[in-house]
């Protein structure tokens, strides 16, 4: 897992040919907007989260974020345990400097 600042995270995503964005916040948080193209999966709902990540493809790189970077850090740790490549958005979406999309 790489723990990256905004600009580094965006650059790594841009360079990745097989990157997917995972928003691991709650449904209430998603209502405030998401990064365009993000797949929404609530980290706090472990009954759904664990089966979801077990189905992810090892051929992809996962760019993960939450509100402050803590839940996404834990999510990245879980992805790494499954042998998946992940990039955490350090400090989360609270420091995001681009417009968000309404889900």
What helical percentage do the residues reach? 25-40%
Rg (CA only): 12 Å
Mean pLDDT: 97
Distance between the termini: 27 Å
CATH superfamily: Rhodanese-like domain
Task: Give the number of domains.
Answer: 1
Number of helices: 4
Major sheet summary line: 5 strands, parallel
The total of beta strands comes to 5
What strand order characterises the main sheet? 1-5-4-2-3
Q: How large is the share of residues in beta strands?
A: 15-25%
CATH topology: Oxidized Rhodanese, domain 1
Estimated structural class: alpha/beta
Mass-distribution shape: globular
CATH architecture: 3-Layer(aba) Sandwich
Q: Give the uncertain stretches in residue-range form.
A: none
> What's the CATH first level?
Alpha Beta
Written as H for each helix and E for each strand, in order along the chain, the element string is EHEHEHEHE
Could you characterize what this model shows?
This protein has 103 residues and is an alpha/beta fold. The protein has a single domain (2-95), classed as Rhodanese-like domain (Oxidized Rhodanese, domain 1, 3-Layer(aba) Sandwich). It is built from four helices and five strands; from the N terminus they run E-H-E-H-E-H-E-H-E. The protein has helices at 6-15, 27-30, 46-54, 70-81; strands at residues 2-4, 19-23, 39-40, 61-65, 85-89. A five-stranded parallel beta sheet has the order 1-5-4-2-3, sandwiched between helices. The radius of gyration is 12 Å and the shape is globular. The termini are far apart. The mean pLDDT is 97.
């Amino acid at each position: 897992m790489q723990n990256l600042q905004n600009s580094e995270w965006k650059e790594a995503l841009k360079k990745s040919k097989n990157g997917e964005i995972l928003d691991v916040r709650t449904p209430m948080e998603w209502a405030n907007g998401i990064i365009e193209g993000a797949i929404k999966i609530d980290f706090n709902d472990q009954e759904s989260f664990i089966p979801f990540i077990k189905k992810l493809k090892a051929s992809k790189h996962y760019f993960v974020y939450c509100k402050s970077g803590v839940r996404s850090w834990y999510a990245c740790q879980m992805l790494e345990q499954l042998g998946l490549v992940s990039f955490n958005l350090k400090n989360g979406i609270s420091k995001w400097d681009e417009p968000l999309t309404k889900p």
